[in-house]
Write a structure and sequence with these properties.
10 helices, binds S-adenosylmethionine, single chain, 348 residues, 18% strand, binds iron/sulfur cluster, alpha/beta
């Protein structure tokens, strides 16, 4: 007797399960800090005398590539490079060049970075050639003297040249400005007008309390974005946009100019249910929530073997521990600082 022929099945390539956390959120956004070093010393981020990590603690450029590529294989679609200052990491353009293969293949949809802008004049063309289409540049003031004060080591004209170079290379630039009461409060309209004139988007960030920076020259204080928005609304109607990024940003249109203005309130809970992101530090720790201390080490499994099986298992195990939400709360914390982990460590 002849056995019935099985139905011919179409070939289905082996599937990699995407990264889904216990709360059914798909993780498709990775932020990677490539260095803890920086050529600025912003008062809300670093102390003047920083001790940086020994080089051997950092992931090498090859390890960063393996790490990011593993995440891309597991379904990450958007990769943001940050730091410290990512563009002061030696050889960083090699990393951008090799990562651009994932854009070419279509596996990655966006490769981008957050930078203080100091090195942009030098690197804008190369970044654009690697497929970087949009970048975030941090800038809190347009006043040279105030800029030097808040960044301690930064020089405004260099950053402005960097922004112009990025635009000339065809990249869309968004400014990130930390809202600081008594510091840039009086520049709110100067900043938004300047952005409108120069075709830049702008997002304001609520300052997070970093209490252990040893800053005697504390500049500015917590300025609630609710108050900042109310001040903007004295000038123009603001219409909330439906756009969501899965993170703490909300976007509005200023009807008077048509500009898009973002507000990042990292301390609010209202975005946790749609959180799609995880962060990797420059030493290969994964933080699955900006507001929680819980983290896992990915460097040991990465270094344990040349193939990525252990690394992928460790990534999945870490995602399985992603908490539902964070518990920053100004009503329970003193604004003067309870967050022990710096933005320059986890990458903002
Ligand atoms: N060096 C780059 C830069 O300044 O854009 C990338 C790293 S920086 C840590 C990323 C972002 O974190 C910047 O926009 C910076 O303004 C923000 N940041 C740093 N410390 C902060 C704090 N205490 N509260 C709110 N934002 C902070
Ligand atoms: Fe450097 Fe960015 Fe931190 Fe400023 S905010 S000290 S530029 S890492």
């Amino acid at each position: 007797m002849r056995l019935a022929q099985p139905f011919a099945q179409p070939y289905v390539p082996p599937m990699t399960m995407p990264l889904i956390d216990p709360f059914a959120r798909t993780i498709d956004y990775l932020r990677v800090s490539v260095t803890d070093r920086c050529d600025f010393r912003c008062v809300y981020c670093m102390s003047e005398n920083m001790t940086f990590l020994p080089k051997k603690e950092l992931l090498t450029l090859e390890e960063l590539d393996r790490m990011c590529s593993a995440f891309v294989r597991l379904g990450v679609k958007k990769l943001r490079i940050t730091g410290g200052e990512p563009l002061v990491r030696r050889g960083i353009m090699t990393f951008f060049k090799t990562m651009s293969r994932h854009l070419t293949s279509g596996a990655l949809q966006e490769l981008t970075l957050t930078t203080n802008g100091s090195q942009l004049e030098k690197y804008a063309d190369e970044l654009a050639a690697c497929g970087v289409k949009r970048i975030n540049v941090s800038l809190d003031t347009l006043d040279e003297e105030k800029f030097a004060r808040v960044t301690r080591w930064g020089r405004l004209p260099q950053v402005l040249r960097g922004i112009r170079a990025a635009q000339a290379a065809g990249m869309r630039v968004k400014l990130n400005a930390v809202a600081l009461k008594g510091f840039n409060e009086d520049e709110l309209f100067t900043l938004t007008d300047w952005c409108a004139q120069n075709d830049l988007d702008i997002t304001f960030i609520e300052v997070m309390p970093m209490g252990d920076l040893g800053n005697e020259d504390r500049i500015g204080q917590y300025w609630s974005l609710k108050d900042l928005r109310a001040k903007l609304a004295t000038r123009s109607d603001l219409t909330e946009l439906a756009e969501r990024t899965g993170g703490p940003a909300r976007y509005f249109r200023m009807e008077a100019t048509g500009q898009k203005i973002g507000f990042i309130t990292p301390l609010s809970h209202n975005f946790c249910e749609s959180c799609n992101r995880v962060r990797i530090t420059c030493t290969g720790e994964i933080y699955t929530c900006l507001g929680q201390e819980g983290h896992s080490d990915l460097r040991a499994p990465l270094r344990a073997s040349e193939n990525d099986a252990q690394l992928e298992d460790a990534i999945r195990a870490a995602i399985a521990l992603k908490p539902k939400g964070h518990d920053f709360d100004y009503s329970r914390q003193q604004v003067d600082g309870q967050v022990s982990r710096h933005m320059s460590h986890t990458g903002g």
